[in-house]
Amino acid sequence: ASQPRPSSSSAAIVRQAQAPKQELVVIDAPNVAMRHGLNKKFSCRGIALAMDYYRAAGHRVVGFLPDYYLS
Questions:
Q1: Which H, E and C letters describe 46-66, residue by residue?
Q2: Are strands 24-28 and 60-64 parallel, antiparallel or unpaired?
Q3: 10-residue averages of pLDDT along the chain (71 residues)
Q4: Which of 1, 18, 24, 28 is the 20 to 30 Å CA partner of 38?
């Protein structure tokens, strides 16, 4: 006998379980920027490089920058 076909909601649960898990990467932007700038200058490019690296690896990325860096 044939098995019953899964409902659309149970099929969605199966697809979700099989999808690769995206980890959340949190970047301490000021420290990354200063290390990329060799502790002499704030390097925005360093932050962009770090974020691009983890995004390319399939992760979700958030960078934290305190508001006093913006003024």
A1: HHHHHHHHHHHCCCEEEEECC
A2: parallel
A3: 60 60 93 97 96 96 92 79
A4: 24
Site of tokens 């990467």 = 25
Please report the pLDDT score of residue 46 as a whole number.
Answer: 97
Residues 6+ apart with CB under 8 A from 49: 36
Residues forming a β-bridge with 62: 26
CB distance 36 to 49 below 8 Å:
yes
Centre a 10 Å sphere on the Cβ of residue 34 and count the other Cβ atoms it contains: 16
One-letter amino acid for residue 32 of the chain = V
pLDDT at 69: 86
